[in-house]
Amino acid sequence: MKRLFALLFAFAVAAAQAQAPQAPEIAARSFLLFDVTTNQVLAAKNPDEPVEPASLTKLMSGYLVFQALRDKKLTLEQTLQVSERAWRTGMTGASRTFLPLNSQVAVDDLLKGMIVQSGNDATVVLAEGVGGTYEQFVEMMNRQAQAFGLKATSFKNPEGLTASGHTSTARDLALIATRLVRDFPEYLHYYSTKEFTYNKIKQNNRNLLLYRDPSVDGLKTGYTDAAGYCLITTARRDFPNGQRRLISVALGAASAEARANESQKLLNWGFASFDAVKLFEANQAVVSPAVWKGASNTAKLGSAQAVVVSVPKGEGDKLKTDISRTDPLVAPLAKGQVVGSIKVSAAGATVVEVPLAVLEPVEQAGLLGRAWDALRLWIQ
Is 161 in contact with 86 (CB distance < 8 Å)? Predict the structure, then answer.
């Protein structure tokens, strides 16, 4: 399923670039705007150009920490010791949480340090706590990147300091951000926290859009000399049939102010230039074709998620849907089994394609029913 998501994400890039209105000029080395609600890339420039991800790296580090919390390998109340390596990483002159050497710090505070303050020391403590060692955590990061289907990302550390071979792309970073938002919405509040005080030192979140746009609720800033000023932002706004979330990636801007301004421009353009059109509700039966050798004569097919499509403003009435499936459908059919696709197109071009799945399981019929259907299939 993870690789399927990556394939759909890649497909969305090509489809969106063929269809989208002209994006505004964005003063960044590369950028990408992704509609999380509809699985569509709305605009991109140099999305596959290798870049140094700087502290955007911490999105993957956070993902692995959230996995450990979900799997009960950590708790938010649990404390972890600040190792000499973590303490020294915090003394590099880059972002830090000012964790005292050998002190015990709660995971909740370490997450705030890593996310709100972009603390390199807090990140290393969490990496050692989750991975057992710093090096094993980096291996976990790269395995997770492979599981996501990322082709151009290689991690050398969990904090994002400059290192040879530590690279990613706007496309890969957008996918990591999307998976984090989708898989762990219960932890998204860390990314919208505007300030955090630790060791009597208060630091503000460097994402300036948190203070300017109430629809923005994350995600992460990054900066090194090589990377320039980088920002991944997510915003959620209402549309007639629900809420819509966009993620913008702006890499290599000239300043902290520029990365905020360019990200705001990109988000505003995405919300204003496209309509979100809901075609099918989640778990709605789109088609109910015949099933052979089944306890039921038909199967309910659709999508586990609502099918929502972004289209240029005012063009929702031009959408067409085409259902394809792997006939004949022969029982047993498992819930969630993919048996085709729902293709949405406009003006002859594919806008998005989503899997067509079995919504309710269909068990096999008895021996006599299977034999009768086998005969009918043979005759056909």
Answer: no
Q: How far is CA 74 from CA 126, 137, 145, 238, in A?
A: 10, 14, 22, 35
Q: What is the pTM of this model?
A: 0.87
Helix, strand, or coil here: 136?
helix
118 is annotated as an active-site residue: yes
Angle at 367 between CA 363 and CA 370, to 5 degrees: 65
**Joined tokens for residue 214:** 């109430």
Nearest-10 crossing angle of helices 120-131, 134-147 = 80
The pLDDT assigned to 239 comes to: 78
Report H helices in the chain: 2-19, 58-70, 84-89, 107-115, 120-131, 134-147, 170-183, 189-192, 209-212, 256-273, 367-379
Distance from CA of residue 323 to its chain's centroid?
A: 26
DSSP label at residue 193: -
Is 58 catalytic? The answer is: yes
- Of the chain, the percentage scoring pLDDT greater than 70 comes to 90
Banded pLDDT at 326 (limits 50, 70, 90): confident
Cis peptide preceding 312, ω within 30 of 0: no
Six-digit token pair at 322? 């085409």
Which of 30, 55, 83, 345 is labelled catalytic?
Answer: 55
Contacts of 27 (CB under 8 A, 6+ apart): 253, 254, 258, 262
CA–CA gap between residue 186 and residue 217 (Å, rounded): 13
Nearest Cα neighbor of 265 from 310, 314, 224, 231 is 231
What average pLDDT does the chain have? Answer: 90
Considering 30, 83, 95, 118, which one is annotated as catalytic?
118
CA atoms within 13 A on the CB side of 333: 31
Q: What are phi and psi of 50, to 5 degrees?
A: -60, 135
Whether residue 147 is predicted with pLDDT greater than 70 in this model: the reply is: yes
> What's the gap between Cα 203 and its chain centre?
27
